[in-house]
Amino acid sequence: MAHKHTHDNIDWPARLSSLRRADELDAPYNRQVADRLVDLLGAATEPVIVDVGSGGGGMSVAFAQALAARGGRVVLSDAVGELLDPAAALVRDAAAGTSVAVDAVRADAADDRLADQLPPADLVWASRVVHHLPDQQAAIDRLVRVLAPGGWLALSEGGLATRCLPWDLGIGEPGLGNRLTAARDDWFVGMRAEMPGVRSLPVGWNTALEAAGLTEVFSFSYVIDHPAPASEAVRLSVVDWIAWMADVGEVQLSDTDRAAVARLVDPDDEAYAGARDDVFVLSASTVYLGRKPV
Ligand SMILES: C[S@@+](CC[C@H](N)C(=O)[O-])C[C@H]1O[C@@H](n2cnc3c(N)ncnc32)[C@H](O)[C@@H]1O
């Protein structure tokens, strides 16, 4: 079925619960990144932070918390109302009793009217959304137009793929985690190739930020480490990961792997991954930053 609102044919409303679970799990990491980025804004009074492709809203919650002591404005923006509305409600709860204003703007980040729909921002945060847009360089150029002079663009893209499964799960063939990641990567190539108006981005993200006219470009990475033995939240997040990888990568998987996945995501099966304490979540995220000249 074709999914409206976005260019990637992904059923984003169906992703809400797993995006939210990941946000809850990663809240301490999100908060550290938010604090670091808010520090970058220096003495700007009541900064405006725009979260493009805000998803489950976890990073906007972290921005609201990071701004609580000084005040400011957090603007969530997403093309999918079914994600945007509950995410904005979460952030409003987090900002209650502070002088942080929270707004939500439904907008397509691939639309050239984006900068007219959003306020001039001291910081634009765009995590794992630009790679869902047909022309990624044009998307970055568009995000730069949302920035106030001197404002920062922060793109969270790339890093290291999630590892979360023991090598041998005792069902199917060993090495399932690697094959799921490879299947997802193949799907990703096809997903981009099928987007109307797609253009390749044959450079790394720092080069793309420079090409968009940003200065002071740099990047940093951080490790996300939820080690075994896994808490229930980690186990459920691992089940989400297996289900998502197998869903998008289904055609690339062997019958044996598909059968193993069906058992791993079934709460009534004795092989259910959500009942194992030897799963874990280990990954790394990279944030690319650049500043709009004053
Ligand atoms: C992989 S999720 C990332 C969510 C969140 N930023 C995070 O890092 O967890 C991608 C998000 O981008 C949104 N999105 C996809 N295409 C979009 C578009 N054309 N314009 C705006 N948002 C879009 C999706 O609805 C989803 O919320």
List the SSEs and their pairings:
Elements: H1 16-25, H2 27-40, E1 48-52, H3 58-67, E2 72-78, H4 81-95, E3 100-106, H5 114-117, E4 121-127, H6 136-146, E5 147-163, H7 176-193, H8 205-211, E6 215-226, H9 232-248, H10 255-264, E7 281-291
Parallel strand pairs: 1-2, 1-4, 2-3, 4-5
Antiparallel strand pairs: 5-7, 6-7
Helix pairs in contact: 1-9, 2-3, 3-4, 7-9
Bound molecules: S-adenosylmethionine.
Short description:
By secondary structure, the protein is an alpha/beta fold. Helices cover 39% and strands 22% of the residues. It has helices at 16-25, 27-40, 58-67, 81-95, 114-117, 136-146, 176-193, 205-211, 232-248, 255-264; strands spanning 48-52, 72-78, 100-106, 121-127, 147-163, 215-226, 281-291.
Could you characterize what this model shows?
There is one protein chain. The protein is of the alpha/beta class and 294 residues long. It has a single domain (12-291), classed as Rossmann fold, CATH 3.40.50.150. It is built from ten helices and seven strands. The protein has helices at 16-25, 27-40, 58-67, 81-95, 114-117, 136-146, 176-193, 205-211, 232-248, 255-264; strands at residues 48-52, 72-78, 100-106, 121-127, 147-163, 215-226, 281-291. The chain has a seven-stranded mixed sheet with strand order 3-2-1-4-5-7-6, sandwiched between helices. α3 (58-67) runs parallel beside α4 (81-95). The structure holds S-adenosylmethionine (SAM). S-adenosylmethionine is lined by residues 6-8, 12, 19, 53-55, 78-80, 83, 108-110, 127-129, 132-133.
